[in-house]
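pasting for the record
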Amino acid sequence: MKTSRFVSRVAIGLAIALLIACNQSQTQKLVLTGSSTVAPLAAEIGKQYEREHPNVRIDVQTGGSSRGIADARQKVADIGMVSRALKPEEKDLMAFTIAWDGISIIIHQENPVTELKREDIIGIYTDKINNWKEVNGRDAPLLWSTKRRGDRRWSYLPNIINCQLLRFRQM
């Protein structure tokens, strides 16, 4: 009787070990969807993780923060990538900050302007400065562009420089 219990326990233990080993040999997939801002970082992290864990595949898909929220809620994605704060109605989800965006104002290398003050940037983006000579540059029209108006990053600049943007030009 003791021998059959021992054999049963060993058989059960081996079966469990075999199941665990089979599960570990199968490729596991992690799906991330959402923000196109987060996607490049997530893809790079995913590549490194896949190199260190050959049985794992990381699938990174874009579609915007709203898609990341929806896919995470509907369990279409394991992780929803969001590049904004959660809205009050999204507080049922958990957010983990992995990075912060940076915003730059850049000027062509051939432009002699070497500095723009906050007031200059406000003037440019509120349509009060229209010529480079107004910011110590050449006498030439001041042309600027940005990503599409609907892009979330567009909304950051007025908050940073504390002004209402009146001008908009799409790249």
